[in-house]
Amino acid sequence: MSAFSLSSDGKLAITASETSSKNDFDYLVGNWNIRNRTLKEPLAGSGEWEEFDATQEFRQILVGLGNFDIFHTELGGKPFEGLTVRLFDPKTRLWTIYWADSNAGKLDDGKVGSFNGDEGEFFGREVVAGKDVIVKFHWDKRNPKTPIYSRAFSVDAGSTWEWNWYSKFSRR
Fold first, then answer.
1. Domain span holding position 109
2. 134-155: per-residue pLDDT in tens?
3. Distance CA 137, CA 113 (A)
């Protein structure tokens, strides 16, 4: 999987795995049902989870150097949409994953990483609950018919991780 290190000024340095390629996300092409499980209050020491269903449409763009998906669900009884854009840099063999949703209406700063075989890890920084965190996305495609996405936050430079989101995919 991709590895990260921190520079003296706290910036993330990400290294691609040897097997990283523009085909890493090909398994996601098509339409999906998603069962999501999220921590209600990340970084609050809470063990209270909520679950909800969503759907997703995924397609490739830029002759395979990119892809995007549209995520649909209801949150709090209101329609919610998310957009993920993934771009592959053939020089560095790193993917950058960007997210935008119907609440914020803008792309985030992106998470960077790669796959090593059937598992991928992607890292970035965010402020969550007033804390500067490293964010880790984990993709598991060991069974490409039922892939799993998960997300974790670290407040201690990656020494420990709080897993706070799991998405289990199945074909529509």
1. 3-41+49-171
2. 999 999 999 999 999 999 999 9
3. 9
Q: What's the total number of domains in the chain?
A: 1
- For residue range 39-52, list pLDDT tens digits in order: 999 999 989 999 99
- Report the alpha-carbon distance of residue 43 to residue 46 in Å, rounded: 8
Gyration radius from the chain CA atoms: 16
Rounded Cα gap, residues 172 and 155, in angstroms: 37
Q: What is d(CA 129, CA 85) in angstroms, rounded to the nearest whole number?
A: 25
Q: CATH number, domain at 12?
A: 2.40.128.20
Q: What are phi and psi of 121, to 5 degrees?
A: -130, 140
Q: What is the 3-state secondary structure (H, E, C) of 102-154?
A: CCCCCCCCCEEEEEECCEEEEEEEEEECCEEEEEEEEEECCCCCCCEEEEEEE
